Amino acid sequence: MIRKSVLALLLLGVGLLLAGCGSGSPGASEAMAPEAAVGETKQDPTTISGPQIIRTAYVDIRVVDVAEATANLIAATAASSGAIDSQSVNSDGTSTYANIVIRVPSATLDAFVTDLSQLGTVISVSINAQDVTTQVVDLDARIQVLQTSIDRLKVIQEQAASVADLVAVESELASRQGELDSLTAQRTYLGQQVAMSTLTVSISPITELTSSTAPGFLAGLQNGWSAFLALIAFLITSAGFLVPFIIIGAIIVIPVITIAIKRKK
């Protein structure tokens, strides 16, 4: 009977601890036993050592050969210990365009973006930074508390004296383990985002950049010649349009003029 009472008290204590951890309220530490509170204040060996920053970048670049530039970009990514997240190549029938999303180590992002100028003409660069230090610290703390709680539940599980107690402990243990797995996955994802920056590179043919006629004497001469040809074409078209009317008018007007001249005589 005493053993069951002790087991019930242990379960109650763990329940209060876990409820405090889930709510994140200031009273959570008060619900823990003094020994537990001391244990929770120990520094986690995985504690972060600096700001946790997620950096993303976008680069728009014009190149002579889109296929060649794409291949060079993929090679440069591999050489930088990066990876290709996605790659798409589209064509409008006359030009080819590529959009590539890559991941590179955050420490080398700036240098990698600078080196992209070797592929062609960089039109625009955008780099964004998001500080997730608070989220990482919060996740680390919650993971540590949950892990400690799970360890205690496993001890209680070994001491269960009845099937009912064992089922209750296993149910609580499964619930907390699921929550721990979810938090661990979130922490892992944030760690990956911090360690590897996401870079989106849009590659377009350089013909778009030089499609307009270059200024200068040659450009003026070319425009004047084009206008002259257009005028000749207009005159020829107009003449072709007026010829039928001139012929019909001549057929009608010439006899009338001839008759009028004869009457005057």
> What are the segments in which pLDDT stays under 50 over at least 5 consecutive residues?
1-10, 16-45, 208-213
Question: How would you spell out the order of helices and strands?
Answer: HHEHEEHEHHEH
What structural class is derived from the secondary structure elements? alpha+beta
Strand line-up across the major sheet? 2-3-5-1-4
Radius of gyration from CA coordinates: 40 Å
Number of strands: 5
Oligomer: single chain
- Per DSSP, the total helix count is 7
Strand composition percent: 15-25%
Please, what is the average pLDDT?
79
Q: What number of structural domains do the residues give?
A: 3
Helix proportion: 55-70%
Largest sheet: 5 strands, mixed
Overall geometric form: elongated
Cα-to-Cα separation, first versus last residue? 152 Å
Structure report:
The chain is of the alpha+beta class and 265 residues long. It has 3 domains: 2-48 and 133-193, no CATH class; 53-125 and 197-208; 213-265. It has helices at 2-23, 34-40, 66-79, 109-115, 133-159, 163-195, 217-264; strands spanning 53-63, 83-91, 96-105, 121-131, 196-205. The protein has a 5-stranded mixed β-sheet with strand order 2-3-5-1-4. Helix 1 packs antiparallel against helix 5 and helix 5 (133-159) packs antiparallel against helix 6. The longest helix has 48 residues, at 217-264. The chain is elongated, with a radius of gyration of 40 Å.
